[in-house]
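tool_call: predict_structure(chain=1)
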Amino acid sequence: MSLSSTDTLEEGDLLQLDYAKLKKVASIAEDVVPVVVQHAVTKEVLIVCYVNREALQRSLDTGQATFWSTSRNELWIKGATSGDTLRVEEIRVNCEQNSVLYLVMPEGEGACHTRNAEGRSRVSCYYRRIARTGALEFIDDK
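tool_result:
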């Protein structure tokens, strides 16, 4: 059984960092800033995304984590299709005002669109670590 490039990227053990991602983001029509999404209680980093003005305002207005999808060029309400929404507790801005931090409470199984071996949404998008060999290793999926 062969794996698709997405499967290889998301479930494989080969390190394939996308060093050109920021160039791609810079070429989209929307002005965006990165947003780090962190669990409000555990402080675990769940995901890193991007927001434009509309996504940030919608997050403030609704209390639901909303982002700008840089791959689809559209507003992305986290959990709209999966049910794994993120309730925004607080939004912070960094010193240079070029990134934001969402402190959230997950309202589902997890924050990642991928699933663990049991078929459950992963708690965080950071479910692998780089081994000294350079290969990726899965860490506890909780």
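agent: Helices lie at 5-11, 21-26, 53-62. Proceeding to next step.
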